[in-house]
Amino acid sequence: MRKINKKAAVELSISTIVIVVLAMAMLILGLVLVKNIFSGVNYNVDQVNEKVKDEIGKLFTEDKRVVVYAPSNDKVTIKQGEDFGLAFCIKNQLAEQNFKWKVSLDDARVGQKCGGVTQAQASNWIITGDSGSKVISSGKVECDTVRFKIPDNQVKDIANCIVRFKIEVTKADNSAYQTSSFDVQAS
User: Which residues are CB-contacts of 45 (< 8 A; sequence separation ≥ 6)?
Assistant: First the structure.
């Protein structure tokens, strides 16, 4: 009877070892798979960033020092209640400078076009990024984002509601560098 118990114990030990080895192999394969997935995601994000930078670079011409990256001809369409980020870039064509920017409403007829929305209400569509500063080396381009959110049901006459905003960029001594305009359409 003692021999049978030893044989069963050896078989049980071997089965346990096999299960542990298989579990470890599956764990390692799972970790390798997760690593490969995340590596692919990082690669795709890097590629998208490079393509966006290339597109922004194409927007700059010799006379443009500030560009707004809008989906269609300096106009963005924003759904009411949703937040939207708009990228803009500053190209330094001078010696290293500390540039400052301010994004503001540039449309005196907002109330007429947007069903009674006041200039103060339209200015409040900017939720972050309306001002800031960056030190930019000579010949370099730096980008940032301004975020907008149009409150639900604020704009009654959506079809005609296109509002002009501007980005004013100044140098460290507060002298003008360049101003660029873009339109926001509520939908």
Answer: none
Residue 142 has pLDDT above 80, yes or no: yes
Question: Where exactly are the structural domains of the chain?
Answer: 1-59, 62-186
* Cα 12 to Cα 134: distance, rounded to the nearest angstrom: 68
And the tokens for 163?
Answer: 């509002």
Please indicate, yes or no, whether the overall pTM of this predicted structure exceeds 0.70. Answer: no
Residue pair 75/162 in contact (Cβ under 8 Å)? The answer is yes
pLDDT digits (tens, 9 = 90+) for 143-162: 888 898 888 877 676 666 88
- CA–chain centroid gap for 30, Å, is 31
CATH classification code of 62-186: 2.60.40.10
Alpha-carbon span 104 to 88, nearest angstrom:
14
8 A C-beta contact, residue 83 and residue 149: yes
Average pLDDT of the segment spanning 8-18: 77
Residue with tokens 């590629």: 47
Spatial separation of the C-alpha atoms in residues 84 and 70, rounded to whole Å? 11
